[in-house]
Amino acid sequence: MSDFPEYVDVDYTDGEGETADDYPSIEDKIEKAIEVVRIGLEEYETPAIMWTGGKDSTLTLYFVKEVAERYGHELPPAVFIDHYQHFDELLEFVEQWADEWDLDVVYARNDDIGAYVEEHGLTPGDDIEIDALEETNRHHVRNILEYEEETFPFLLDTYVGNHLLKTVALNGALETYGIDGIISGIRWDEQEARADETFFSPRHDPEIYPPHDRIQPILQFDEGDVWDAFWYFVVPETVPAFPDDGYVPQSYDDLPNGLTHEEIPVSPKYFDGFRSLGSEISTEKSDDEPAWLQDLDNTTERAGRAQDKEDLMQRLRDLGYM
Questions:
Q1: How far is CA 146 from CA 14, 139, 169, 170, in A?
Q2: Span 67-88, pLDDT tens digits
Q3: Which of 116, 150, 200, 288 has its CA 20 to 30 A from that of 125?
């Protein structure tokens, strides 16, 4: 184990044994999120925000912005993992709101994979030859994943593809920028593999990842809470023309006061019925209704994403996946 910086003094047991029910109101959940972010910005010297452009990470980004402004902290950079299979609309959303919020975005990529894909004109699903990759990627495939095939498909939602395109890319950014705390928007209710996470979660084994901590301020939110926070807090407080007391759109065209989608920090894909925005290739919309109007309690938020099968998710998380 590494000697993680001694200047960090956080309670790694905070949240242990808790569930969303321990934070009964949306105000309780927001208060806890603010507390966790405040501690994170005070304790870590080089924090960063994990931002995907999705609802959870954008809510987390909102809390970081609020805390930074309220307590006089510098707004940390955002790490965006570019796995080469994003929805175009998501990339546009990230670029627009990074500019709107004056956010420094670090694009984390596995450049070796990207170069191979470009050189060979690959499309998702085509095979990548492992022996043609650089030593770091070969090491991860052979020695860490213990994958024995000669090729793997260029797909995000596979064991090898997810690890190389997301985790290896993230670890590279952590190392390059010396990040000691990454602020992440994961939630207890998303998957069984995340149900036991704490608000400050150590990742200190240098054999697996650059030593750092995960700062996780919205563990206590469920999917419905996230949308309540958006329509009653985030959007009213960041969009001047939005009703101060909140408003829940009932369709794609139902935005109040003549607002357009470009003025709302919520991806239009959610209005189209998507509840998760992982990959253009493997993610399908759940319904024709906007995400927040669907049956959130009795349907699965991340259905159809192969890396979210519980056994696979746990293995990936052991290797540094979010």
A1: 34, 9, 19, 20
A2: 999 999 999 999 999 999 998 9
A3: 288
